[in-house]
């Protein structure tokens, strides 16, 4: 096959294109025929193109060295550490400012460690890629400029170690209070929490995780609003107390007749915050001076606004979910009315209802694939098809063995998803169809059409239909769904239309057909479901009757049919076998002679086959003839030689006398 002049269908400049070019060059080098001058020029040009692409790839790798990708797993874990650190700072800083709490000992070392973590985060942000207009930017200069213009000033102000300055300073008390209030700039990182949560939610695209993120964000917002309100209220109340105003702290101390502890002050202030937030105003603790009233007004305004936003968001989520459920219920009601109008059987109506429920359940949390692909460019569609369907297509070993990489990339776009209900027949033995099936969920029963013998049950990541697809032969078995099953299908006609500009594809399929003329499917890697040998199918396997893969239930069904011909077969205790010499005739035969109508009253097809077989093989041994007729139930498609081999019948001819095996001499004379 000459594929030199074929232009690759993958994206130029990508790694797939590089591999495709290398594949073409290797095929030319491995061929025995010498290259023509034209082929030599093409080979030289391809080699030059590979060198250029390698240089670009090396330059890109060098530029991206020691850079953190914004969507990498390690970066997400680091962002989670930053979230925990910011939440700690958001709690401890307002508390220490409002209640004049000085950090000492381990808390001081923890604060210094958090400042160090924030400085490391600044350094990492200078080396983390970002996306602009859907393109990942990996230039260090562009990354630095973008970070300086966005979050650098805020991160620097929130990372400064103010605690070290406060502990080492010998300034006056007022200066210390001023520096302590400057620490409030460290809370600026809280503004980044929302963006970090959104980024993590986009990376971990799970509906359950999205609900968890929204719930966590809502709970944290309520807790921090209450905490900050309590700290602010206590700060202004304490300030009013120093100005000789009546305040709630002064009243509490008068009631208790003692100085209350720091924990009691904080719990009391937090209690005021929650009662103000949830009761919108007046309670047993209320504002007693203008400063406290001012803070109460601000707290109630912020809380009312946030709760209005929260209730609106929750109601919209509930309405959206109810809309989907209502649409599904209307669809089911409409289908039921339609089926009742047609007077369909109840069993069929339930089957249709279960199918609609399954399809709706499998698609309720996802959008249509075609709608997504329409929004994307051709290159992105090709890349998505290669990523999603490429692995599925490679389950069939014939594709990577005989097809090029560019051909496989083109074929991946032709796969179509189909859904089947339990009991649906996908294939029927003997039909002519050229479809290949890849199971993505569910299970499929592969069985013999006439007898119902189960060959195998295929599950997820199994394929079937290769013989009809590649060789164009009739189906050698039937396929029926065991439960709700989703399969990706590939039609031969669509493959030919897609690759019609490649003449080697037609030669390849002709080669498949000629190689499989004698039912030898080694070229396709077909294995027998019974003996697991390559080259033949289970229908033609000589070990079909004694195969250990046949279900015991099926074997018992066949034994029951055998006993209808020979009631003594396989019954009673095992006894010692004795050999006697008798004439082998119709009189001394073991078993009862019955007509096919008595043996199989409901199976007219089998009765006709037995009569035809008796007419064909009339003379000689009636006992052997009855044995052959019984095996015809299982091996109705096998020839006479295969039946003899399966039953181990002695083909040695006897003239007058034969050796006959029986359990008792009396059986022979009866």
From TrEMBL:
Enumerate the Pfam families for this protein. Answer: cNMP_binding, Ion_trans, zf-CCHC
Q: Which residues form the Cyclic nucleotide-binding domain?
A: 399-491
GO cellular component terms, A-Z? HCN channel complex
Transmembrane parts of this sequence: 76-101, 107-131, 208-230, 294-312
Assign the protein's first listed, main location to one coarse class.
membrane
Give residue ranges for domain CCHC-type: 527-543
Classify the source by domain of life: Eukaryota
Record protein name field: Cyclic nucleotide-binding domain-containing protein
> What is the originating organism of this protein?
Blepharisma stoltei
């Amino acid at each position: 096959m000459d594929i030199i002049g074929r232009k690759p269908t993958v994206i130029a400049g990508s790694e797939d294109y590089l591999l495709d070019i290398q594949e073409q060059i290797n095929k030319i080098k491995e061929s025995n025929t010498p290259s023509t001058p034209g082929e030599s020029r093409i080979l030289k040009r391809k080699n030059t193109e590979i060198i250029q692409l390698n240089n670009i790839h090396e330059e890109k790798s060098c530029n991206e060295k020691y850079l953190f990708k914004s969507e990498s797993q390690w970066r997400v874990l680091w962002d989670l550490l930053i979230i925990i650190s910011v939440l700690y700072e958001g709690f401890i800083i307002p508390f220490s400012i409002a209640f004049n709490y000085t950090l000492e000992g381990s808390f001081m070392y923890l604060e210094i460690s958090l400042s160090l973590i924030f400085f490391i985060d600044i350094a990492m942000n200078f080396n983390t890629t970002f996306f602009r207009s859907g393109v990942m930017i990996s230039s260090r200069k562009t990354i630095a400029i973008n970070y300086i213009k966005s979050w650098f000033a805020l991160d620097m102000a929130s990372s400064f170690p103010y605690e070290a300055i406060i502990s080492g300073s010998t300034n006056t008390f007022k200066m210390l209070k001023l520096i302590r209030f400057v620490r409030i700039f460290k809370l600026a990182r809280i503004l980044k929490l929302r963006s970090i949560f959104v980024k993590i939610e986009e990376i971990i695209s799970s509906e359950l995780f999205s609900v968890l993120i929204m719930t966590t964000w809502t709970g944290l917002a309520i807790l921090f609003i209450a905490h900050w309100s309590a700290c602010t209220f206590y700060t202004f109340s304490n300030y009013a107390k120093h100005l000789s105003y009546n305040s709630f702290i002064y009243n509490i101390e008068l009631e208790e007749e003692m100085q209350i502890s720091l924990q009691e002050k904080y719990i009391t202030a937090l209690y005021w915050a929650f009662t103000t937030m949830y009761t919108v105003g007046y309670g047993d603790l209320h504002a007693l001076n203008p400063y406290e009233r001012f803070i109460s007004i601000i707290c109630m305004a912020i809380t009312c606004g946030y709760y209005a936003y929260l209730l609106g968001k929750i109601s919209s989520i509930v309405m959206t979910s109810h809309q989907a459920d209502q649409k599904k219920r209307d669809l089911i009601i409409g289908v039921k009315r339609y089926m009742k109008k047609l007077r369909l059987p109840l069993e069929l109506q339930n089957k249709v209802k279960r199918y609609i429920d399954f399809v709706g359940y499998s698609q309720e949390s996802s959008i249509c694939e075609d709608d997504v692909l329409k929004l994307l460019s051709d290159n992105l569609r090709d890349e998505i098809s290669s990523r999603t369907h490429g692995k599925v297509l490679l389950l069939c070993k014939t594709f990577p063995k005989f097809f090029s990489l560019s051909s496989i990339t083109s074929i991946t776009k032709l796969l179509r998803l189909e859904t089947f209900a339990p009991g649906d027949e996908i294939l029927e033995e003997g039909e002519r169809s050229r479809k290949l099936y890849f199971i993505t969920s569910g299970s499929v029963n592969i069985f013999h059409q006439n007898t119902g013998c189960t060959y195998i049950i295929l599950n997820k990541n199994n394929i079937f239909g290769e013989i009809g697809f590649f060789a164009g032969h009739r189906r050698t078995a039937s396929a029926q769904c065991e439960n709700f099953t989703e399969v990706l299908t590939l039609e031969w006609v669509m493959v030919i239309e897609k690759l019609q500009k490649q003449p080697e594809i037609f030669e390849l399929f002709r080669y498949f057909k000629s190689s499989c003329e004698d039912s030898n499917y080694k070229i396709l890697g077909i294995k027998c479901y019974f003996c697991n040998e390559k080259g033949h199918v289970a229908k033609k396997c000589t070990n079909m009757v004694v195969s250990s893969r046949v279900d015991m239930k099926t074997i018992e069904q066949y034994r029951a049919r055998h006993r209808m011909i020979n009631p003594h077969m396989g019954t009673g205790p095992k006894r010692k076998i004795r050999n006697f010499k008798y004439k082998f005739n119709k009189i001394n035969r073991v078993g009862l002679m019955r007509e096919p109508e008595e043996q199989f009253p409901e199976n007219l097809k089998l009765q006709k086959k037995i009569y035809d077989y008796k007419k064909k093989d009339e003379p000689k041994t009636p006992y052997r003839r009855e044995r052959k007729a019984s095996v015809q139930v299982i091996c109705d498609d096998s020839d006479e030689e295969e039946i003899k081999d399966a039953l181990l019948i002695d083909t040695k001819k006897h003239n007058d006398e034969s050796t006959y095996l029986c359990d008792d001499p009396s059986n022979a004379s009866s």
